Amino acid sequence: MSSDQHIRTAFDRDLDQLQAQMLRMGGLVEVAILAATKSFETQDVQLADEVRAADRIIDDIETQINEDVTSIIALQAPTARDLRLLLSILKVAGNLERIGDYAKNMAKRTHLLLQLPNIENSSSSLRRLSREVQLMLKDSLDAYVQRDTELAKDVIARDNDVDELYNGLFRQFVTHMMEDPRNITACLHLHFIAKNIERMGDHVTSIAEQVVLVVTGQMPSESRPKGDLTSIDVTLSQE
Predict the structure, then answer these.
(1) Who's near 134: CB < 8 A, 6+ residues apart?
(2) Cα separation of 25 and 30, whole Å?
């Protein structure tokens, strides 16, 4: 084997390991979404605490990915195409870390909701919203591995469905608050949960856009206007 072939083989092996780390991270994030949703739906404080603890593992994997990518770039001077792939892995890992943070934020509110009145149909509606985002995440990661731009574009389009579901939930919570002021605190917490899930959808969409970038060298050309019609400050849902 020539020196160039040996270098290429080592680089490909490093890439495979990076993508394996990224997929492990993605799997943990999927679990976090489902577990966080179940924790507030069933008022399972122990499960909520497990979600919060597992977020540290997700953060550690992202840190390791960042270090590994930096090392590969410094030591192997990758070509433009390989560099694009490495940077996309960084981008995907960053999005996964943020989704994990939102799942942790959701789990934090389980403790608070125990003390508040139940809001009719809120659990089933939030479950539907989080399930849609979790499926989008699964498809976006599959699209990345398979370099499937059509699947990636389908994920991007489905973000509109998430926005519509979120807007419907927002209107539902406002109605409950107007009907009975005693519902205000509970509905605010539930809205923050819904907003966290909606923001997850944005980060999943960003992952899908990276698939298109890796395969074509360009970001998707279609504009992606946000369907979130509410005016609540996003930062409030990131406590």
Answers:
(1) 30, 33, 34
(2) 9
The predicted-structure confidence for 176-224, as pLDDT tens digits, reads as follows: 999 999 999 999 999 999 999 999 999 999 999 999 999 999 988 765 5
Give the integer Cα–Cα distance in Å for 170 and 112. 19
CB 49 within 8 A of CB 117: no
Q: pLDDT (tens digit, 9 = 90+) per residue, 70-116?
A: 999 988 888 888 899 999 999 999 999 999 999 999 999 988 888 88
What is the pTM (predicted TM-score) of this model? 0.88
Q: Which two tokens stand for residue 48?
A: 């909520």
> What does residue 184 show for φ and ψ, rounded to 5 degrees?
-60, -50
For residue 44, with 0-12 CB atoms within 10 Å meaning exposed, 13-18 middle and 19 or more buried, which class applies? middle
User: Tokens for 142?
Assistant: 């599959």
